[in-house]
Amino acid sequence: MFHQQAISFKTQDNISLSGWFFVPENIPAPCIIMTHGFTALKEHYLSKFAEVFASAGMCVLVYDNRNFGESEGEPCFEVNPELQVRDLSDAISYVQTRSEVDANNIALWGTSFSGGNVIVAASMDSRVKCIVAQVPFVKGHH
What does the DSSP assignment read for 36-83? Predict the structure, then answer.
């Protein structure tokens, strides 16, 4: 069993990112931070994965990228990979403050566009112990 909470956390530039935090029965637990693809929202099925992981004993943070869904940011619907990678670092800092989380066992999960973002974020942040880059975007026009 697990329970789900609506949460928000602040980024380095004081943007509020909104999401859901899934807490398993046995805590503290490792934590997976999940972000969606190019323009998708947390409601677009990441919760189904999060529920399975939480049932298996892991904390999970699922959130909307800045400028999308319930998260703040302007202009609306702008995709900025540099800021999204920085936001992943802020998400790590946020979950490490939570008593339910084993702060030394943090994983990142990115789908599509965010799959590329988690690769970059993990290369820059030694707090990340594992990544899942599901069909990652890794090359495009410059």
Answer: --SS--TTTTHHHHHHHHHHTT-EEEEEPPTTSTTS--SSTT---HHH
